[in-house]
Design a protein that fits this description.
- A 3-stranded antiparallel β-sheet has the order 2-1-3, with helices on one face.
- The chain is mainly alpha-helical and about 400 residues long.
- Helix content is about 75%, strand content about 5%.
Length: about 400
């Protein structure tokens, strides 16, 4: 059941007077219908903002496109005309850039263009796969069904991306924080202890001397370290963007990283199965569907393998045979595809495979998070705890001498 929300509305009453207010409903269309029962013709219905919205000026994200597709599918399934569906969805949008995008599409469609041709004008937000599926839905007269299928595909894909991103960013973020804290200790805290130790008149422990020397070096060259790291990161990103060979190398190496490589592999297989299931179920020919799947693979190893499968299938070879020949697809997926080809339910078997591997990715991410937490705590203990121990060792030694 859809979650209720508060909507702010403006309109006219039975006497034609302008009025406004708030109403609780599940979506703008139902809110307008409820207001109509009360004798109010709503000209604008917008979801009420909950406090500060830090995304209000942000760009249009894939998650926004996923939500837009789901809302359009809901509107059309409810029998709302296409152009009116655009208006209703745009009214409930908080991001100005997303509202502008939807209104631009609505203007094109109301001017006589097809939905597919309208979204092709915005390739930054709608890829070829999205446009081709919408075009297939319009050609077959089942646009609402196709939009529902695309929305499900986008939601699953974005959820999968979020899981992989979570697995990659969590340990990296913690390590960055640890390095920042360590830098502050070395630059600001250790020098204070150094001044105290200067009055001891005794030789400091070797570990403490090493930390003090490292602190002095950090104080003098910290800006070079920061600039070097930032420069190296920028240079790497530029090289990766411009060099296809480097991107391919990174993709190949990433598949062999312990634990993380397993997540990347399973997510690529899940994307393959989900995309091929969606396109094949939409009536797209298998060879054309494999073209779209290759573009959505997300890894150059699987991109090349899928293109090889496409070439084999175009010569008349069965899909599961060509998949097995690549050596990158697991036996389970190959068997599911074989069963689907034999039974004529390939899209269903691929969907089951996609769901299975998406669940596996979810479990692997949870396991990685659980595994990383003690490892991260150990690293933090060594970095920060080591600095603290180095600073207190002379004090402990002095206490032992005084006590003796």
């Amino acid at each position: 059941m859809a979650e209720s929300a508060t909507f702010v509305w403006e309109g006219t009453d039975r006497q034609g007077r302008k009025t406004k207010g708030e109403i609780t409903s599940s979506n703008p269309a139902i809110a307008k219908a409820e207001l109509r029962k009360q004798g109010i013709v709503a000209t604008r219905v917008k979801k009420k903002s909950n406090g500060l919205n830090f995304n209000i000026g942000g760009g249009v994200t894939p998650a926004d496109i996923s939500l837009f597709t789901r809302q359009m599918a809901t509107m059309m399934r409810a029998g709302v005309p296409l152009v009116q569906s655009f208006e209703i969805v745009a009214d409930g949008v908080d991001k100005p850039k997303l509202r502008t995008l939807i209104n631009a599409i609505r203007t094109d469609v109301s001017g006589g263009n097809s939905f597919a041709s309208a979204i092709r004008r915005h390739p930054a937000h709608f890829d070829d796969l999205f446009c081709n599926l919408v075009d297939a839905g319009e050609q077959s007269g089942s646009l609402e069904t196709m939009l529902d299928r695309i929305a499900t595909y986008k939601e699953k894909t974005e959820a999968l991306k979020a899981k992989v991103k979570k697995a990659m960013t969590y340990p990296a973020a913690v390590m960055v924080v640890a390095l920042i804290v360590s830098g502050i200790l070395l630059i600001k805290v250790v020098p204070q202890f150094e001044q105290v130790f200067a009055g001891f008149g005794a030789e400091l422990p070797a570990f403490t001397q090493m930390v003090i020397r490292f602190s002095e070096w950090t104080q003098e060259y910290w800006f070079l370290v920061v600039a070097g790291v930032a420069g190296a990161g920028f240079a790497f990103m530029q090289a990766r963007r411009r060099s296809e060979a480097l991107r391919n190398l990174i993709d190949r190496v990433s598949l062999h990283i312990p634990v993380m490589g397993n997540i990347i592999e399973k997510s690529a297989i899940a994307r393959f199965a989900r995309t091929l299931s969606t396109t094949f179920a939409a009536g797209v020919p298998l060879v054309d569907a494999l073209n779209a799947v290759a573009g959505a693979a997300g890894n150059s190893v699987y991109h090349a393998a899928i293109l090889k499968v496409r070439d084999d299938v175009s010569t008349g070879q069965q899909l599961h045979f060509s998949m097995r020949a690549t050596g990158v697809f697991p036996n389970m997926v190959i068997q599911m595809v074989a069963i689907g080809e034999e039974s004529g339910a390939l899209d269903s078997m691929l969907e089951k495979s996609a769901t299975h591997y998406e669940t596996m990715v979810d479990d692997l991410v949870d396991n990685l998070t659980a595994l990383m937490e003690p490892m991260i705590m150990s690293v933090l203990g060594v970095l920060i705890g080591g600095l603290i121990i180095a600073m207190y060792l002379p004090i402990f030694q002095l206490g032992a001498v005084v006590g003796g």
